[in-house]
Automatic annotation (TrEMBL):
Region span, Disordered: 457-496
Protein origin, superkingdom: Bacteria
One Pfam family here: MFS_1
PROSITE patterns in the record: MFS (PS50850)
One cellular component (GO) term of this entry: plasma membrane
Name assigned to this protein: MFS transporter
Chain segments annotated as transmembrane: 12-34, 46-66, 78-97, 103-123, 135-157, 163-182, 194-213, 219-242, 263-283, 303-322, 329-350, 362-384, 391-415, 427-449
Organism expressing this protein natively: Streptomyces sulfonofaciens
One GO term of the biological process aspect: response to antibiotic
Compositionally biased intervals (Low complexity): 457-474
InterPro entries: MFS, MFS_dom, MFS_trans_sf
Subcellular locations according to the entry: Cell membrane
Main localization, broad class: membrane
Length: 496
């Protein structure tokens, strides 16, 4: 294989990690403000929920198209396009006074979803292996810090929700300018064009499934609308799979997904995302439960800002774990992250009556989440060629989005099914949620066994990229700088 010097330096690394921070802050900061926005606009509960849902659905559309487009024309111009849409959406919502305008802005802000993949792909493609590994880890750590910043922003802005969107516009604009000035693009390009039928099928499937999961509680899980959306989404996913298996130039070679060394990391991403709603959202809701219910802490919305502390500390400490685990291989790093998540959920369940216990438990949970997302994406990148890194990571984000939506739906069912006489979610609903989400992390941990075997059998590198023999890597990979799970050999390109 040939080698070349990295094209991006420290300034670009700072810009890429900032994107992870800023976009999570924009996303999470909205959550505590939804009741205030709905009340001021005179929106119904269903209309208010669409403020969140509209961004989720548009994000699915952007994700299916932009990640592949990044492989074709360059990831940097696609990031600039996506960030421009986010800035415009935030500006619209800064001045919006009606629900349709707010929804329009949120649809544009949905362009941030591909940002969970494209900055990571640029780091992988343009940096030497050791620095790429560290940068990808830092991006995910900064997403955790962005969640903490979003909690603080949403808590302190309060009723001034227009100010939240104004701050978000500035944060996104800084990311846009930093990317334009500091980040060099990957020179690798995919060929064959955009598979429009495949992109269309994937988009429709994602929209159907995510809409069905997000509206299940409001419409009723047995309603014709929800059942039709979920069944239709499953059928569309099947049609998409068939299309990708037979297309001359597929959106992605779906043969990747049936290979254990790449299919299992996708499954792990799904499982850890399943528990996200059951952690931060559930524990903050538990904290705000009135003391009259016999449990909960009776905290105000401002008081829940305390949860930003462990949410920030956890990912920051995760950098130390990532460095330690990197010397022992990515599978071991992933296993450690799942153990941390399990410890966090166990702490939520056991310490549900003590505020300090809930705060402390959030630290290992958030630490484990940051490590898990970094490790699973690195596992995917270790077996795909550079020209397909964008769409490969895009599928990782698909697993993340679907897992998070399904986890939210399951926890929502618990909250609706087990209630107090006052109509609040009962303590049993929280304990069931913690047990279910922790169980998902246990399954992810168990999957480390077959994953380790598959990577040992295939001689898969555990670093940032093990490319096909016909697609030279950005720099030579070896066991000393990638933290391998096996010899750093070039793998034949997987086919559909």
């Amino acid at each position: 294989m040939t080698s070349r010097p990295p094209r991006n330096g420290r300034a670009a690394i700072m810009a890429l990690t900032y994107l992870g921070f800023a976009l999570q802050m924009v996303q999470v900061g909205l959550l505590p403000l939804l009741p205030e926005i709905g009340a001021e606009l005179g929106a119904s509960p269903a209309g208010t929920s669409w403020i969140l849902t509209s961004g989720l659905l548009s994000g699915a559309v952007f994700l299916a198209v932009l990640t592949r487009l990044g492989d074709l024309i360059g990831k940097r111009p696609v990031i600039l396009l996506a960030m421009s849409l986010v800035v415009v959406g935030c500006v619209i919502d800064t001045f919006a006074t009606t629900l349709p305008l707010v929804l329009l802005g949120r649809v544009l802000i949905g362009a941030q979803l591909p940002m969970l993949a494209l900055p990571v792909a640029i780091a992988n493609d343009t940096l030497e292996p050791k620095r790429a590994h560290g940068t990808i880890s830092s991006i995910h750590v900064c997403t955790g810090l962005g969640i903490a910043a979003g909690l603080l922003l949403g808590s302190f802005v309060g009723r001034s929700w227009h100010l939240y969107f104004a701050i978000s516009a500035v944060a996104a604009l800084i990311g846009l300018v930093a990317t334009a000035l500091l980040v060099h693009d990957s020179p690798r390009r995919a060929t064959g064009g955009l598979d429009l039928p495949g992109a269309g099928l994937l988009t429709l499937a994602l929209v159907a499934v995510l809409l069905g999961l997000s509206e299940g509680s409001a419409w009723g899980w047995g309603s014709a609308g929800v059942v039709s959306l979920l069944v239709g989404g499953a059928v569309l996913f099947g049609l998409w799979w068939l299309r990708e298996r037979t297309a001359q130039v597929p959106l992605i070679k779906v043969g990747y997904l049936v290979q254990p060394h790449i299919g299992i990391p996708y499954a792990m991403t799904f499982l850890v995302a399943f528990g996200i709603y059951g952690s931060l959202s559930a524990v903050t809701r538990l904290a705000q439960t009135p003391l009259q219910a016999g449990f909960g802490f009776g905290w105000s919305g401002h008081a829940t800002a305390w949860f930003a502390v462990p949410q920030a500390v956890g990912p920051a400490l995760g950098t130390l774990v990532l460095r330690w685990g990197r010397q022992r291989g990515l599978v071991m790093t992933a296993a450690i992250s799942f153990c941390l998540i399990i410890v966090g959920f166990a702490g939520y369940a056991v310490g549900h009556s003590t505020p300090l216990a809930e705060l402390v438990s959030l630290a290992p949970d958030s630490m484990g989440l940051a490590i898990a997302l970094a490790a699973t994406q690195l596992l995917v990148l270790s077996v795909v060629p550079a020209e397909e890194s964008g769409i490969a990571l895009g599928l990782s984000v698909v697993m993340y989005a679907v897992g998070q939506s399904l986890g939210s739906a399951v926890v929502g069912v618990y909250f609706a099914s087990f209630t107090t006489p006052a109509g609040l979610p009962a303590l049993g609903s929280y304990l069931a949620a913690f047990a279910t989400c922790g169980g998902a992390a246990v399954v992810a941990l168990l999957l480390c066994v077959p994953l380790a075997r598959s990577r040992t059998a295939g001689g898969t590198a555990g670093g940032t990229a093990a490319y096909s023999a016909s697609a030279p890597a950005p720099a030579e990979r070896d066991a000393s700088d990638t933290g391998t799970d096996g010899p750093a050999t070039a793998r034949p390109r997987a086919t559909g």
